[in-house]
Amino acid sequence: MSTPSVTFEGTVVDAAIATPELSILVDAVVAAGLADALAEA
């Protein structure tokens, strides 16, 4: 089983915010103050 790749115009943080299933991850990243660091990745 494989997952098809997708192209996303934005940062890792933007992609996580746009994915409702990742809301807990987004909350944790923001709470840890890592959003800016990951946005530069």
Walk me through this protein's architecture:
The relative contact order is 0.20. The protein is globular. The protein is built from three helices and no strands. The chain has 41 residues and is mainly α. It has helices at 12-17, 23-31, 35-39. It has one domain (10-41).
Strand content: under 5%
Mean pLDDT across all amino acids: 86
Straight-line distance between termini: 28 Å
* Overall strand count: 0
Main β-sheet, in a few words? none
Name the poorly predicted regions.
none
How many separate domains?
1
Shape: globular
Gyration radius from CA atoms, angstroms: 11 Å
Structural class: mainly alpha
The helix count comes to 3
**Helical coverage, percent range:** 40-55%
Order of helices and strands: HHH
Topology summary:
Blueprint: H1 12-17, H2 23-31, H3 35-39
What keyword list fits this structure?
41 residues; 3 helices; mainly alpha; globular
Q: Quick gist of this model?
A:
The chain has 41 residues and is mainly alpha-helical. Helix content is 49%, strand content 0%. It has one domain.
